Fold each of these.
Amino acid sequence: MLHRLSAPTPLRLCARASSLVKPAPFVVKNFSITPLLENMSDTKSTDMLAKLFQRSHVPDMTGRPFIRTAACLIIGDEVLNGKTQDTNSNKMAKLCFEIGVELKKIEVISDDVDEIVEAAQRLSHKYDWVVTSGGIGPTPDDITYSSLAKAFGDEPLEYDDETLRRMSTGIQHIYGTITESENVLRARKRMALFPRGSEVLFPTEEYWVPVVRVNGNVCVLPGIPSIFEALLKGLPPYLRLDPDMPKPIRRLIHTNLPESMISPLLENLTKMGKKDGIRVGSYPKWKAGVHISLVGYDHMLIDKYTQMVVEEIGGQPVDV
């Protein structure tokens, strides 16, 4: 008996668990494969899969360079044409701030081999750590893995057995036995086809989806925000972070005064900040005053600058 699924996705079949009773075995033959990695952050789903999957062993980081700078490469026509709003770069920025890595570049490019090759090579050479988002599903426009293979040594693509195993386990756990057509099976297996020599990391118990590290410093993540975030949060143990690198401190002060009235103060603070290592920024809110941002590494200096702002313009510290 053939059961046709509404807008099915192979990755959803693999990665998303359900609290429902497993259906009887069914056959999946020819259905349209849609953009992947959607709506898979259900709490019950991830709790169930957490019992199936384990995190990867953390490798020995000795000899690897410290990660002090980073770049985020968003890959997808859907972002550039306005269909999808990028939120993953914001998650990347927040994580970098938390772990003391300076995010230097956020770039958005199309699903184009030459674009991906050029950007990946340039960013990998210039920054210590690069995270990509998008283009790793089973559809023809998912070309991130093959493009990165071309970018770094023109390596052939190889199936990763552990990823295939986890993928299959996820499907069977949710849907029982599924008989797939050759076309569907081939498309699904593309999501486990990585450049030879890549590191395959499983930094979270929530999903079978791996993080594939190419060229030593390029980490490939999916585009769907919930999975991107889960994988990203699990990555720090797999990065060599400098233990002596101080974590940045951010302080926000709000004032009801318009930005034009506090411009002289901001100019003075900016000049002082260059000497003291304090970055000063102002972020006006329409008809609601201004947030003044202070970012630095010295608690005493941050407190000093905060007090100056409060006294000069009657500002009020805001919880970050």
Note: The longest helix spans residues 259-276.
Amino acid sequence: MEVVIPAVVGALASVVVVLLSAVLTARHQRRHAVEAEHDVIRGTYLNPLRYHAVENHFRITDNLHKVRQHGGHWDELDVLATTADLADKDPGWFVSEGARLATATYLTACLLAHLARVRDNVPYLRLTTTADTRLAELTLQVHVGILQDGGMPNVAQISLGQEMWHRDEKRLLTYREFCQLLQKPDRRPWIEPVVLYHLQLGRGENLGRVRLLIDATAELAEFLDGHVGGAESIGSRSEAEHRYRAKLAHYRSIE
């Protein structure tokens, strides 16, 4: 009996070790699967939103700076008498004289597209209640920055964002496809408020809402930095812009 008891205890211990190992392995696999799922979610929804928040922040900031540099009116952005004039523009206009206005409009429409996509998929983002609430607040701030002072209504912003998706191919409209929409009288009205937003910026009008949008995109990018990972997006982009401008100034000085 004295010999049997240690053998039984040893066997039981082995079974316990095997069971614990199986449990711990299963937990590790589940945790890894959850982390992988979160990575996919971040890559699909949050990271593209951060990218376009940063792009809009810097583009609009730069345009506002140029308007101030030119005494409150910048001809390179104010290139239309009315938005209806878009119908008469040939494709080349959108990559030359009208590029500054059209690309700014496109970038803002892309931001609205990703805001709409995140809004439609909030249940799948698996954010904490606090983070979910904060994201909703920051999203609203961006919408208000476009809505303010007779701008584009929230519902219309969401609708445009949804229209920016090529549903069959599950991608954003390309810049070329977007410009083609601007030339269609039946589709252009849904985009005109964003075109007018940037036109008025070029004219030095309604700059309060522009500053609001600049601040809102910065706050949104900062929030997403904490949930996507990587370097501080605004800071990193600012440093990259500074290095680029320094190089450009150097090359011009030796021409």
Note: The chain has one domain: 43-253.
Amino acid sequence: MSPDSVKGLILVVEDERAISDLLRLYLSREGFGVQVESDGLAGLNAARTLHPVAIILD
């Protein structure tokens, strides 16, 4: 998928790898870029710098 066709970036903050992998798979299939962070502090820093269109929290 080219960067021009991405609907927006979604930030996923989830400490369980299997769940974050599933979310990444499903959201990517729908055309979203996905950034995964495994803890709250990393998620907060990512939100401040990346400005995602949505955040999914554990």
Note: The first helix runs from residue 17 to 29.
Amino acid sequence: GLADVMARLGGCEVGRLRIGIGQPPEPIAAEDYVLGRFDAGEEAAIQPAIRTAADAVENWVFDGLVAVMDRYNASNENKPVEPATNGSTEPNGCDRNQGPDDGTEANV
């Protein structure tokens, strides 16, 4: 999982792209919700996000992470990029739930 990737990279200050999924409906565990297959309605709903994520990855390659965050993260508008914090209980100080204001990810 993400904790293993961060451990192998030696820290959490790496770029990553996340697609928002909202809150899992009760009583489904978050892990089951994230790792489960899409039903027909969810499949149709996720397609625009997948296209946007693919565009973001291409922009990331050519324009860099900061440009992609500025373009795709609405919450980053007019906000300076700050380094990730280290006050986490995750391995290597990484918090897998850090939001877009940690300066290390583009959210689509």
Note: Residues 2-107 form one domain.
